[in-house]
Design a protein that fits this description.
- By secondary structure, the protein is mainly beta.
- The protein has one domain: Rieske Iron-sulfur Protein (3-layer Sandwich).
- Helix content is about 0%, strand content about 45%.
- Strands 1-9-8 form a three-stranded antiparallel β-sheet, with no helix packed on it.
- It is globular and about 40 Å long.
- It binds FE2/S2 (inorganic) cluster.
Length: about 110
C-alpha cells in the first residue's frame, strides 16, 4: 500500500498563494509546497531544477509579484503553476517535480512515489 501524508487543509492556503510542508519519505525529510488557485491546487517538491536549491528564501513565498508564476528566488526562474514547467530563466524547459495530491474532507493528502 502506498504511503500517504496528510499535509493540511486547503483553506489554510490563501488564494493565489502557496504553503510549504516537510514530509518524511524513505527516512529523509523532503520539502514540498502547494499552490492554491481557488478550488484547485498544484503541489511540487521544493527543489529548483537549475541548481538544486529550494525555490523560496522566505517562508511560504513562492509566487511572482503578479501571482501568475512560481518563482525561484535564487536566479529568478519562473515556472507555470499548472504543470511546473520553467518558462523563463536559466532552466527553461525543465520541470518541477509534481506531487500526487488529492483532496479528502478538505484536507490535502499526498501519495508518496514508490
Ligand atoms: S537555482 Fe533556481 S533559477 Fe537557479
Amino acid at each position: 500500500m502506498p504511503q500517504e501524508t496528510t499535509l493540511g487543509a486547503l483553506k489554510d492556503i490563501p488564494d493565489n498563494e502557496a504553503k510549504e510542508y516537510e514530509i518524511e519519505h524513505d527516512d529523509e525529510t523532503v520539502e514540498v509546497f502547494v499552490v492554491r488557485k481557488g478550488a484547485n491546487f498544484f503541489g511540487y517538491v521544493n527543489y529548483c531544477p537549475h541548481a538544486g536549491t529550494p525555490l523560496n528564501w522566505s517562508i511560504d513565498r513562492f509566487m511572482t509579484l503578479d501571482k501568475k508564476y512560481i518563482l525561484c528566488a535564487t536566479h529568478g526562474a519562473e515556472f507555470r503553476i499548472e504543470d511546473g514547467q520553467c518558462i523563463s530563466g536559466p532552466c527553461v524547459g525543465d520541470c518541477l517535480a509534481p506531487l500526487d495530491l488529492r483532496l479528502e474532507n478538505g484536507q490535502l493528502v499526498l501519495t508518496h512515489p514508490e
